[in-house]
């Protein structure tokens, strides 16, 4: 008797190739979108689903450059199909992917991110240094609502508790909360409460930071569209910038996250902030037609 094969398992149909990568544990599915369509909500859900799909924090789509200074552009999608404007660990992964594909041949080049032009430099030990732009503390630009003037810290009432945080934009919005003990920080409750509050857009990333010295911090981040992740590059930049601005850190800081370490350097408030960290290729894959 002939076996009837469901159409979703028909290997003769076109498949979508992807790369699985991570930066300090912050993991991504990389898609080559040059000359093809962008992922819809269904595909975004499948790619990010760790049980019934591929599994990742965010989806990165490589596209043609937007200006003559860059070699490529990229887009960022979360599990619900919404777009993000910044991802530091993702920028390093895109840079490494471009080098492997032969699209970047020099040790330094530029990328078009959703939030603007980023510089890339490969370090001598094989890590990637990304120029993440100048941190922006203006409430109207973050955006942070109900505050007209920028402050070092803001205190608001959320779910019957007073929460004190710093606020800034790294191309995407961030709230940074200092804690005494990173292990007991209320990441899973305070993170979503701030995202659902009237003070930020739901896209805000919420960082919880413990200072161990002027050169080192511990950081956990509850990210938009992903929940708590093993690392957040823009969150690391935001935490360091906020604490340097308050005079609590030196200009070069090691950020220890759940998934690894990042080095953040910020000269002053008129200069871009730089993030250096590792990149790893996990595997290559193809998605069967039934999930496209």
UniProtKB/TrEMBL annotation:
Q: Can the keyword Glycoprotein be found in this entry's annotation?
A: no
Which domain of life does this protein belong to? Answer: Bacteria
Looking at the UniProt record, the site noted as Could be important to modulate the pK values of the two catalytic cysteine residues sits at: 174, 223
Pathway(s) per entry: Amino-acid biosynthesis; L-lysine biosynthesis via DAP pathway; DL-2,6-diaminopimelate from LL-2,6-diaminopimelate: step 1/1
Q: Which Gene Ontology terms describe the biological processes this protein takes part in?
A: lysine biosynthetic process via diaminopimelate
Q: Which Pfam families does this UniProt record tie to the protein?
A: DAP_epimerase (PF01678)
The entry's function note states:
Catalyzes the stereoinversion of LL-2,6-diaminopimelate (L,L-DAP) to meso-diaminopimelate (meso-DAP), a precursor of L-lysine and an essential component of the bacterial peptidoglycan.
**What is the official name of this protein in its record?**
Diaminopimelate epimerase
Q: Which gene encodes it?
A: dapF_2
């Amino acid at each position: 008797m002939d076996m009837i094969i469901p159409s979703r398992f028909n290997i003769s149909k076109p498949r979508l190739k992807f790369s699985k990568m991570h930066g300090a544990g912050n993991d991504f599915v990389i898609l080559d979108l040059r000359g093809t369509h962008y992922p819809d909500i269904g595909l975004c859900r499948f790619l990010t689903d760790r049980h019934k799909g591929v599994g990742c924090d965010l989806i990165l789509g490589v596209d043609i450059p937007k200006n003559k200074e860059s070699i490529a552009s990229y887009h960022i999608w979360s599990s619900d199909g919404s777009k993000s404007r910044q991802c530091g660990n993702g920028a390093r992964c895109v840079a490494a992917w471009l080098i492997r594909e032969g699209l970047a041949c020099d040790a330094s080049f530029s990328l078009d991110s959703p939030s603007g032009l980023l510089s890339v430099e490969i370090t001598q030990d094989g890590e990637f240094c990304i120029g993440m732009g100048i941190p922006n503390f203006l409430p109207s630009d973050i955006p942070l609502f109900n505050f007209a003037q920028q402050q070092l810290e803001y205190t608001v009432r959320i779910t019957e508790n007073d929460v004190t945080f710093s606020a800034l934009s790294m191309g995407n919005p961030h709230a940074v909360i200092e804690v005494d003990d990173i292990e007991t920080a209320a990441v899973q409750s305070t993170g979503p409460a701030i995202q659902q509050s009237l003070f930020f857009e739901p896209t805000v990333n919420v960082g919880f930071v413990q200072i161990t010295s002027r050169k080192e911090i511990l950081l956990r981040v509850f990210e938009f569209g992903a929940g708590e992740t093993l690392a957040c590059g823009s969150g690391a930049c935001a935490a360091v910038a906020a604490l340097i601005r308050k005079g609590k850190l030196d200009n070069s800081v090691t950020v220890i996250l759940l998934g690894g370490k990042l080095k953040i350097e910020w000269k002053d408030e008129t200069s871009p902030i730089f993030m250096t960290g590792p990149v790893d290729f996990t595997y290559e894959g193809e998605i069967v037609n039934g999930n496209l």
